[in-house]
Amino acid sequence: MTQPRILVARAVFPETLERLARHFEVESNQSDESWDRAQLIQKLQGKAGVFTTGSERIDAELLAACPQLRICANMAVGYNNFDVEAMTARGVLATNAPDVLTETTADFGFALLMATARRISESEHFLRAGQWKKWSYDMFAGAEVHGSTLGIIGMGRIGQGVAKRGAHGFGMKVVYHNRSRLSPELEAECKARYVGKEELLKTADHVVLVVPYTPASHHTIGAAELALMKPTATLINIARGGIVDDAALAVALKERRIAAAGLDVFEGEPKVHPELLTVPNVVLTPHIASATVPTRRAMADLAADNLIGYLVNGQPLTPLNPSVIGAR
Ligand code: 8YV
Fold first, then answer.
1. With 76 labelled, which of 8, 43, 102, 134 sits at a CA distance of 20 to 30 A?
2. Contact by Cβ (8 Å): 24, 5
3. Among this protein's residues, is 269 annotated catalytic?
């Protein structure tokens, strides 16, 4: 019997490819070449499935050009690279990789918050540059973390993980804003109080963004929102590029209208707004919040399990549009 053909669009763990090869005829991109859209479409010809990361855009135009495609499995919890509506209309299954990265990403959110508030990167650069000649009383004095107010925008699984770390580990007062309010049980578990976005921005010492990217969440934080924040506050973005207006943020940081920011995601990444590269009070990391070896393996395994589950057994693990299952 001939095996279904799939495409792995980016380099992945060799073990993931070996597993996939037991079930499929696999074309992969282990050299991690950057394919443009036309190349991706060409590679997808005759493929029933594709293993994607957050960087391949799957939309109506691509689907129309790849009629044999049945499933797109994202090795990411976020799936703003998928037009799920268009996929559903074409009977193409979309899957993401939730849960397996929750705690790791929350750890990183907290690490970035700590690094930003306590000026770790800035002071390390100073030291490495040979500028440390003597200690002084206010050298790299930053913001307090323990006991301060943590504001979380986007209270899904990762937001809740950040809240628990803040409330239970650092005695922080946690306020959150979300499309819908959590159950009283979850609010108690996270020790978090629901507030409006404006109140959150005005009262939080540290604002952490964990909302998914949609057209509605574009520029959740722009000049107007930054103006509401305390001049001593820090802003952390572990959500997606485009949630923050990076140009407006660069101005606010330069003019010290907020104290500092920690950014793992950027508008138009891997490009970074040039002004952000020139301001000292920002910690910049290259979209690594989920990057531990065990978690990246678990994410790759889940994407592979979705491909195998659906194309071999008809049962994916984490479908985003389950209505298409069996409909084609
Ligand atoms: C991924 C992420 O590493 O899961 C997500 O949504 O942002 C990251 O964990 C990235 O999207 C590449 O797949």
1. 43
2. yes
3. yes
Task: Write down the pTM of the prediction.
Answer: 0.97
Region of residue 105 (phi > 0: left; psi between -120 and 50: alpha; otherwise: beta) = alpha
Q: pLDDT truncated to tens, each residue of the chain (328 aa)? A: 689 999 999 999 999 999 999 999 999 999 999 999 999 999 999 999 999 998 899 999 999 999 999 999 999 999 999 999 999 999 999 999 999 999 999 999 999 999 999 999 999 999 999 999 999 999 999 999 999 999 999 999 999 999 999 999 999 999 999 999 999 999 999 999 999 999 999 999 999 999 999 999 999 999 999 999 999 999 999 999 999 999 999 999 999 999 999 999 999 999 999 999 999 999 999 999 999 999 999 999 999 999 999 999 999 999 999 999 988 7
In the reported structure, the alpha carbon of residue 255 is separated from the centroid of ligand 1 by a whole-number distance in angstroms of 32
Q: Distance between CA 117 and CA 143 in Å, rounded? A: 5
C-beta separation of 85 from 107 below 8 A: no
Distance 76 CA to ligand 1 centre (A): 4
Nearest atom in ligand 1 to 290's CA? 9
CA-closest candidate to residue 273, choices 255, 293, 253? 253
- Which is the catalytic residue, given 10, 206, 240, 296? 240
Identify the residue whose C-alpha is closest to ligand 1 atom 6: 78
Is 177 designated active site? no
**199 among known catalytic residues:** no
Ligand 1 centre from 288 Cα, in Å?
A: 8
Residue in the structure block whose two tokens are 């594709």? 50
| Closest C-alpha to ligand 1, atom 8 | 76
100 CA to middle of ligand 1, Å? Answer: 11
- Give the closest residue (by CA) to ligand 1 atom 9: 290
- What is the residue whose two structure tokens read 């690279």? 81
> CA 211 to CA 236: how far, in whole Å?
12
Identify whether the C-beta of residue 37 lies closer than 8 Å to the C-beta of residue 15. Answer: no
